Amino acid sequence: GAEVVFSVDCTKLKDYFLPEKREFDCIYFNFPHCGRKAGVVKNRELLAHFFHSSAEVLTEEGEVHVALCNGQGGTPADQPRREWHNSWQIVAVAAGAGFILSNVHPFKAETIHGYKCTGYRSQDKSFCVEGALNHIFTRSTPLPYFKPMICEIELENRKVSFQVPQVLVDKINRGFLELNSNHPVQTVKEKLTAELSQAFPLQNVDYCLSLLHQGHLNGVCHSNVFWIILSPEETQSTEEISNGLANAVLFSHVDFYRDTDKNGWVNAQEGCHISKQYYLRPSLLPYAQAIIQRGAFLPGTLHVLSGPVFRKCLITPYSMPVFHEMVFVCAVNTGAEDSCIQMLVNYIKTSIHSLHQTVSGFKPNLNLQEATSFETELNDFAAFESQVGKIQYFICMETDTSGSCEKGSYVGIIRTAHYELVSRELVVVFASLNLDLLAMLICGISDWRMLWTSDTRFLRQFPRGELRLFKSFSLYPPSYGHDVSFWVPDGEQFDEVAFHTIARQVSGEMVISIQLIDSFQQPETGRKSLCYRLTFQSCDKALSRREVAEMQLLFRKEINQRLRVTLR
């Protein structure tokens, strides 16, 4: 019952099928080859044209299967693996047509009904399929293009609007912690809350937490927060704002790095009418402290705050410019804080043990490490929290059997503070957890960016209220390295956080690593030159060489304009 078509050019598939027959669910290409002694470059070109051709005749959720001989694909699935330059680079070639590698498995001719190997170049010599692999490709969601976004919130009993920093446009108001959400971050929060409610009376205070905060953050570098500056005039409509008439102005820390007072606060430039300076909240702890100081606090009750927080940070595997924080606050009599901490940690342990064992089959170790004896390098979450105030303990989650805490496994902190409450001095215990890191460690998600993907294949793996081990739908994504070197402006300290933030912005979080590979200072003039290597890679989307080249050019332009460096 099948229709057989002969002499089909695989690089022009749509020319051989009528429009109504161009919706294929699956396209197979077993052992493609240009013929004769074609080298790897010509075969890459063949695959590139084939994938572009397939994209024109494949259904939205269709698959492209390509079988290659052992070593040709150039992925880690090939054993032994060829050097990248000597392979067909199939994942990079497919990415150019918008495809990602979603599965790969051994090619077994005997399992395919009717498949027959006809030999090697029509000779008696058999075609070798030992170690051959079948590569299964699916469509990627397109790379996003983020337009400027205006966020409207209520602040000090009035509505205000502000422009969202571009690097956060796809992360504002995602609703991961809403009641009807099946996102793993929400599931982890629900399980923790349910477990702690067995030991403490709970009170949620999420409803009163503004995205914007005002005031000093003691000990925190001002280049690590997203500043928002609002003028005192009445807020205008969204339409007026989008037309450029808004009175909400956004500045990056780069803009006022050179014009701050001795306390690090911005000096408004002449002609700029500014009354108050705000920043996107980098932590929920100031809100917890404000609740206590207002007297809206019940001793003995565990108050729970949760929501996204925002921080500028260097690009590392566990550094997140936004994540969901959960804060527990409880007041106890002086001298009882140690037992409160232990009880709090025990119930958190029980909850996480239960979740992790359900997902992966074994219990992780959850340990407290005293801050005073802390020597291991912290991840970004713990390092930032340690700047905010005095920390008693770090909460470390060990997910292997080595007994050591990896850099990314510091998922929480515990601190204490003395307050005068209800005419007596009480000790308030604060516990802060990074829900995103917890979800990653429990579900085996290796890249924090996957939590924010718009690809529906992510959430499909987590039905309502159920956590599972995550299975990536984009295997062995290609990576691309680009170097940039420049002269630093004379007499100025190079702002590395700003450098990394610009890389995040222009690439849409496609830069996974920035390494300083060379530093040079001219003896005669004292001018300093830096050379960095940027590695681009997507965890969920097809990313092509051409797209990366465009990002790199834009990055060079942006650092030249915003950091005033001289490109080499």
UniProtKB/TrEMBL annotation:
GO cellular component: mitochondrial matrix
Localization per Swiss-Prot or TrEMBL: Mitochondrion matrix
Keyword Mitochondrion applies: yes
Keyword Membrane set for record: no
UniProt-listed InterPro entries: aa-tRNA-synth_II/BPL/LPL, BMT5-like, Fdx_antiC-bd, Fdx_antiC-bd_sf
Domain FDX-ACB residue range list: 475-568
Gene3D superfamilies linked: Bira Bifunctional Protein, Domain 2, Ferrodoxin-fold anticodon-binding domain
GO molecular function: ATP binding; phenylalanine-tRNA ligase activity; rRNA (uridine-N3-)-methyltransferase activity
Main location: mitochondrion
Gene that encodes it: Fdxacb1
UniProt record, GO biological process: rRNA base methylation; translation
SUPFAM superfamilies: Anticodon-binding domain of PheRS
Record-listed E.C. numbers: 6.1.1.20
Protein name: phenylalanine--tRNA ligase
Organism: Fregetta grallaria (White-bellied storm-petrel)
Lineage: superkingdom: Eukaryota
Catalytic activity, reaction form: tRNA(Phe) + L-phenylalanine + ATP = L-phenylalanyl-tRNA(Phe) + AMP + diphosphate + H(+)
A Pfam family hit: FDX-ACB
Keywords: Aminoacyl-tRNA synthetase, ATP-binding, Ligase, Mitochondrion, Nucleotide-binding, Protein biosynthesis, Transit peptide
